[in-house]
Amino acid sequence: MKLWAYRGVTMFRDHVETDRHLWDRVQADDASAYETIFRRHVTAVHNFCAHRVGSYDVADDLTSTVFLEAWRCRRRLSVAAAGASPLLFGIAKNVCSQHLRRSKRQLLAIRRAPVESISLDHSSQVAEDVDNEKDLLAMRDALADLPADQRAVIELCLIGGLGVDAAAEDLKIPAGTVKSRLSRGRARLAVSLAEINASRTE
After folding, report:
1. For the chain, which end, N or C, has fewer CB atoms within 10 Å of the first or last residue's CB respectively?
2. What pLDDT score was predicted for residue 70?
3. How many distinct structural domains can be found in the chain?
4. Comparing C-alpha atoms, which of 93, 94, 108, 107 is closest to residue 143?
């Protein structure tokens, strides 16, 4: 808390801790500092996971895994000046990749199993919001079509909400390069989404 004077009246000004300062406390096992980190970044991490795997429901579990993993590994992880977002997105990327690999193995196993051995509970497979899930899957497929360098910038800036300077620091490239890749990526993404949506109506 800082003190400052205005026309002879002493007033208080809240001091907002940076992610880096909070992480110092996290590494000292301060759960309240980690709760602040969680509140600041949970929505962005959830969006990141949802766009990676194409499901909001699955993203709920994956987001929990991301923050549990970050807490578990807190003493050997560090937060840069850009904040905790790059660190959390890096963990999220690994968690989502592991999930997608598991899902692929499960799908292959189901395809190899005899049809009569598969019991389906249709009620559990009906999405509560089908349109949202379809849009999410379309976005996931469109992102997959982007060049890796453009996809990385789109995920950090558009999906994760990271600023250009923070993304540049995380990717170790100039801010101008981030802006140009973001511009090209957005244009290409729009085309891919239009093509995917058009194919749905055919």
Report:
1. C
2. 96
3. 2
4. 93
Q: How far apart are the C-alpha atoms of 85 and 88, rounded to whole Å?
A: 5
Residue with tokens 């000046």: 81
The pLDDT-based confidence of 100 (bands split at 50, 70, 90) is confident
Q: Given 90, 119, 148, which residue is the final one in a domain?
A: 119
Helix axes 31-53, 130-144, angle to 10 degrees: 80
> What CATH number is attached to the domain comprising 85?
1.10.1740.10
What's the rounded Cα separation, in Å, for the pair 96 and 102? 10
Give tens-digit pLDDT for 106-156: 545 434 544 344 333 433 333 344 456 777 888 888 888 889 999 889 888
CA triplet 104, 105, 108: central angle to 5 degrees? 85
8 A C-beta contact, residue 89 and residue 169: no
